[in-house]
TrEMBL record:
Occurrences of domain DUF4982 (ranges): 620-677
Taxon lineage: Bacteria, Pseudomonadati, Pseudomonadota, Betaproteobacteria, Burkholderiales
Positions of the Glycoside hydrolase family domain: 690-793
Domain Glycosyl hydrolases family 2 sugar binding: 107-202
GO molecular function: beta-galactosidase activity
Protein name per its UniProtKB record: Beta-galactosidase
Keyword vocabulary terms for this entry: Glycosidase, Hydrolase, Signal
Family named by the database record: Belongs to the glycosyl hydrolase 2 family.
Xref: Pfam families: DUF4982 (PF16355), Glyco_hydro2_C5 (PF18565), Glyco_hydro_2 (PF00703), Glyco_hydro_2_C (PF02836), Glyco_hydro_2_N (PF02837)
Domain Glycoside hydrolase family 2 immunoglobulin-like beta-sandwich: 213-316
Residues making up the signal peptide according to the UniProt record: 1-28
Residue ranges of every copy of the Glycoside hydrolase family 2 catalytic domain listed in the record: 323-560
Length: 944
């Protein structure tokens, strides 16, 4: 039988619950994906954890919220640097010959990030997820002092369910991230820090899992269908039902197919809703017409939408044929591919999306149709871009290892990327010493099997640089055998394995310095004529010739499309970045760019003449002129007079020896006897003026958009000066900033994060980025000694930034309290509780309500770490509400006394001084009345 008072109490609680649930239900509606890039605090270097000693500390160390040092919620981060992500701290470091050549001679080390994360009461009951797109390299994440994630790769994203640990209301949560970038995963520059985007995703307790929408069209028997799987997850307390409505949206924005499915999801479980959409005559995704469709999944609970997500997809078929190579939509496509790493001039690995767009656009201009993101997963937005731009992608996993941790990295990659029409191959390894062995085969087999469970539509590959002749090797387990270099094995291997599709996964590896036309081993300079392959590689021309002439090799992946930091082969210090690129680190063309353009571009005539024509002192001497063109013939003219004409050699390209005379040298491309293209190079005088050429005429004022601006010098007649090396200083006015500078010289030790840069062989790059809510115009000025300066104005278009998590100032709540048993006699507030006594005093967090009880007195004890910005003798220890009379003691000194017994706010001023303080509150209850610390307790900054 329920007593009336209990019944009343019960009814009241039910009412409250219903109210809370309905409030929760309204609040929980919808999906919020907020940028968490802003408002971080950063400390470069380790923050030592205190040694765990003594029973009390050891006991606490064994508990969930055991984050010490900078991982602790109340750590004093008042002196830390404020910054926004993405952030690469390695690129901020100077070059140092004692650091690793492979990582570009820059210190990496350890760093810490902290961020205060406010969540409102309205968020209670939702599923709260923290997402890091990538952190280089080993990372540990704490929320409110609790370890919530550890990750050992700098290339995979992490989605962390932080729902159980977060607090709502007045006190923000604390996120702490320790990054160990001394750990290396590659032999190239890998950067350091939280270098991709960070998000906070709030969803209903029942929601679509991250990367939980799988929608990859398939064609069978001439019919297209779109099988859709939507993985639902629930953090609700009981089973829930959801209905998923899926629509397919064509490139014109029309809804062209629909489906619906329901699923029941048990508490803390997941379930998959499946459906199949019939799609009639979709517009195919191709390189020339990259038709991107969108698939939207909306999750409903009854009539109410509770979550939604959207992915890109495309309708295309792919096939690798053992004799004829690769087919896209049943048409043969030779892969004109490049390998690239992910760093760029000025910004390191923290590359804004718009700079990626610039890089991919430059590669397309070169005729590239395929990219191997070597040797790791690219950022998600880069694959979206590849879909939209019509580029094929070899999507590569970093670690060859089928053990659980690493397999998780592989399955993350496949889950994230399996809807992209651009992705045509999963690459599971690159040049593994175990590739020739049975172990290599067994490892491959397991990784391939795992991929097939998630995606049966794309073949797998692995990049072999040997080991192909053993009885059982890693290549035996993949669908398409990938060959790095070894062009001598192509025919033999094909003959022995006539049913195996083959592709180059990597070729070329030849050296060039932009704008240089004579190699100088001492000066660590390589001529840009494509004469210097590595001992294991080939020139750009030889590698392509071997591939282009063999239909059974699906295509080429040139090492590399763009230079990257580290691996300064064939040199070491002072060279700090690579010589392999067809473009330099800033995306300026080297000789190989023009070679590939002539070999690869089919839809328009191209011609390029190299070198520059500034050879004062060499009058009358022969200069080697290289002409690259896709036309039938090329003719060279010097100062209007014909020097020679040749049939174009589409592989070797064409050379002319031209006795130098200053003036104008021209290459005329001819097809069918008619001029189809012309390139003109002129001798220039001394530089007199700088020129700024932005890649685009305006910027989105969203705090994300960045534009590379080319800096060059011209002579009095406005002709480019190819050998100018002037030091240029930049200044920005308006709502934006310079985020990096570069010039593509692999031997340069000038800073990337700077407002000055020397031209290198006539060119430099400065990257400007808008500020959030940037309006008006951004003015960039360039000046150099002895030259006329330049100025360019970039209007900032009003474009809203993605929704952001508001920044929050730190608060110092006193959360963890010990509570003495109730006593009839007033106890000594400074009584020492034995370190090894875990039980005679209780443990709790405010609000703490006690009684009515037998004894009137209780002690409440906690500690507070006083931040340096709160130690000035004005800070207040504020109690939201104390019920009962009370004395507040800090470090054995009584600071205040509350004489009224009614529940009321109370505060004491904390004497000057930082560090750890012990706080004890002695509470005396009114007989028969409940008592305690009923409100939050927080250390507040005092009034100024
Ligand atoms: C390959 C390797 C690449 C790069 C290249 C340089 O062996 O896969 O990552 O190191 O050599 O030639």
């Amino acid at each position: 039988m329920l007593r009336p008072s209990t019944l009343l109490h019960w009814l009241a609680s039910c009412l409250l619950l219903v109210l809370a649930l309905s409030a929760g239900a309204t609040q929980a509606a919808g999906h919020e994906r907020l940028s968490l890039d802003g408002g971080w605090l950063f400390h470069r270097g380790e923050v030592a954890m205190p040694a765990v000693k003594g029973h009390g500390m050891s006991y606490q160390n064994g508990k969930a919220n055991n984050g010490w040092g900078a991982a602790a919620a109340d750590f004093d981060d008042s002196g830390w640097r404020r910054l926004d992500l993405p952030h690469d701290w390695a690129v901020e470091n100077p070059f140092d010959r004692n650091e690793n050549a492979s990582q570009g001679y820059r210190a990496r080390g350890i760093g810490w990030y902290r961020r205060y994360l406010p969540l409102s009461e309205a968020d209670r009951g939702r599923h709260i997820e923290l997402q890091f797109d990538a952190i280089a390299t080993h990372s540990t994440v704490w929320v409110n002092g609790i370890v919530v994630d550890r990750n050992w790769s700098g290339y995979n994203g992490r989605s962390i369910d932080i729902t159980p640990y977060v607090r709502y209301g007045s006190d923000p949560n604390t996120i702490a991230v320790r990054v160990d970038a001394d750990a290396q995963e590659g032999w190239w520059y890998e950067g350091a820090g939280i270098y991709r985007h960070t998000w906070l995703v709030k969803r209903d307790a029942l929601h679509i899992a991250t990367d939980g929408l799988h929608a990859n069209p398939v064609k069978q028997g001439g019919r297209w269908t779109l099988p859709v799987e939507v993985t639902l997850q629930s953090s609700a307390k009981a089973a829930r039902d959801g209905v998923v409505d899926v629509v397919l949206i064509d490139p014109a924005g029309r809804e062209v197919a629909k489906g619906s499915a329901r699923a029941r999801v048990a508490a803390l479980e997941s379930a998959v809703a499946r459906m199949k959409l019939d799609v009639r005559e979709p517009r195919l995704w191709s390189l020339a017409q990259p038709n991107v469709y969108r698939v939207r999944a909306v999750l409903r609970d009854g009539a109410q939408e509770i979550d939604r997500t959207e992915v890109q997809t495309g309708f295309r078929t792919i096939r690798f044929d053992a004799d004829k190579g690769f087919f896209l939509n049943d048409e043969s496509v030779k892969l004109q591919g490049v390998c690239i790493h992910q760093d760029h001039a000025g910004v390191g690995v923290a590359v804004p999306e718009s700079i990626w767009e610039f890089r991919l656009r430059r590669l397309k201009e070169m005729g590239t149709n395929a990219i191997r993101f070597a040797h790791n997963a690219p950022a998600a937005e880069v694959l979206d871009m590849a879909d939209r731009m019509g580029l094929l992608v070899m999507d590569e996993n970093r670690h060859f290892n089928p053990s659980p941790d690493y397999l998780q990295q592989l399955t993350w990659l496949v889950r994230r990327d399996r809807n992209h029409p651009s992705v045509i191959l999963w690459s599971i390894f690159n040049e593994e010493p175990l590739q020739s062995t049975e172990a290599g085969y067994e490892m491959s087999r397991r990784m391939v099997a795992e991929i097939r469970k998630l995606d049966a539509t794309r073949p797998t590959t692995g990049a072999m640089h040997g080991g192909l002749t053993t009885d059982l090797n890693a290549a035996d387990a993949v669908d398409v055998v990938g060959l790095n270099y070894q062009i001598w094995i192509y025919d033999d291997y094909h003959k022995k394995h006539p049913k195996r599709p083959l592709t180059s996964t990597e070729d070329t590896s030849a050296f060039m310095t932009r704008g240089e036309y004579a190699s100088d081993r001492k000066g660590q300079v390589m001529a840009s004529y494509d004469d210097e392959p590595s001992s294991w590689g080939n020139t750009h021309r030889d590698a392509w010739k071997a591939i282009a002439q063999r239909p059974f090799i699906a295509g080429s992946f040139v090492w590399t499309g763009i230079d990257y930091r580290g691996e300064p082969t064939p040199y070491e210090w002072p060279s700090a970045s690579s010589f392999f690129g067809a473009m330099d680190l800033a995306g300026f063309a080297k000789g190989a760019f023009w070679i590939h353009q002539a070999q690869w571009v089919k839809d328009k005539p191209v011609v390029k003449l190299q070198p520059h024509w500034n050879w004062a002192g060499r009058e009358g001497q022969n200069i080697r002129v290289m002409v690259t063109s896709n036309a039938q013939r090329v003719r060279v003219l010097l100062n209007g007079r014909e020097v020679g004409e040749q049939a174009v050699d589409p592989y070797e390209m064409n050379y002319f020896q031209v006795p130098y005379a200053p003036g104008r040298i021209e290459a005329v491309a001819l097809s069918g006897g008619k001029e189809v293209a012309r390139d003109v190079v002129e001798t220039s005088g001394a530089a007199v003026r700088l020129v700024l050429t932005p890649d685009r005429p305006a910027l989105a004022g969203d705090g994300l958009d960045a534009v590379p601006v080319t800096v060059s010098a011209v002579d009095a007649q406005g002709r480019p000066v190819p050998l100018a090396q002037d030091k240029v200083t930049f200044a920005v006015e308006g709502q934006g900033a310079i985020i990096g500078v570069g010039n593509g010289d692999p031997n340069s030790h000038e800073a990337d994060k700077a407002s000055e840069r020397s031209l290198f062989n006539g060119l430099a790059q400065v990257i400007v980025q808008s500020r959030r809510d940037g309006r008006g115009a951004l003015k960039l000025r360039a000046s150099a000694q002895g030259l006329q300066g330049a100025e360019v104005e970039l209007p900032l278009n009003a474009v809203a930034a993605p929704p952001q998590v508001p920044t929050a100032e730190p608060t110092t709540p006193l959360l963890s309290w010990r509570i003495s048993p109730a006593a009839a006699v007033k106890p000594d507030p400074n009584v020492v509780l034995a370190e090894n006594d875990m039980n005679s005093w209780g443990w709790d967090e405010p609000p703490m309500r006690r009684g009515p009880e037998a004894g009137a007195f209780r002690l409440y004890r906690s500690g507070v770490n006083v931040r340096a910005d709160r130690n000035d003798g004005r800070a207040q220890l504020a109690f939201g509400s104390i019920a009962g009379k009370a004395e507040v003691w800090v470090d054995g000194v009584k600071l205040g006394e509350k004489t009224a017994a009614e529940p009321a706010p109370f505060s004491v001023v904390l004497p000057q001084g930082g560090g750890r303080r012990e706080v004890t509150v002695l509470v005396e209850a009114t007989p028969g009345q409940p008592s305690g610390l009923w409100g939050r307790v927080v250390l507040e900054r005092g009034a100024p």
